[in-house]
Amino acid sequence: MPIAISLGFDPIWFAIVFILNMQMAYMTPPFGWCLILMKGIAPPEVTTTDIWRSVPPFVAMQLLVLVMVMVFPALALWLPGRMM
To answer: What's the pLDDT tens digit per position in 10-40?
Structure first.
């Protein structure tokens, strides 16, 4: 975090971007821990292929939100700014 602060990034914004990025990482290869968990709790008739095929729309939405928060930091900083 000290490097992000020294580069001039808002620490709250940086943490939110990091969390959004990590959330997307749990749904994408090479591991996709969230998808492995889904396979463990899904009914037996749902295959791993079905789960992997369902992921792209969700990853696309998460990528769009990540890019929007990076381009428009006020989206991530509005609510914390109201609380402080």
So the answer is: 898 999 999 999 999 998 888 788 888 999 9
Residue 30 φ/ψ, nearest 5 degrees: -85, -15
35 vs 37: CA distance, rounded Å: 5
**Interatomic CA distance for residues 29 and 43, integer angstroms:** 22
Tell me which residue range forms the domain holding 32: 2-83
In the chain, the number of structural domains is 1
- CA contacts within 13 A on the Cβ side of 7: 8
Return all residues near 27 (Cβ < 8 A) that are at least 6 apart.
34, 35, 55, 58, 59, 62
Q: What is the C-alpha to C-alpha distance for residues 38 and 48, in angstroms, rounded to an integer?
A: 9
Full-prediction pTM beyond 0.85?
A: no
Q: How many CB atoms lie within 10 A of CB 77?
A: 15
38: amino acid identity, one letter: M
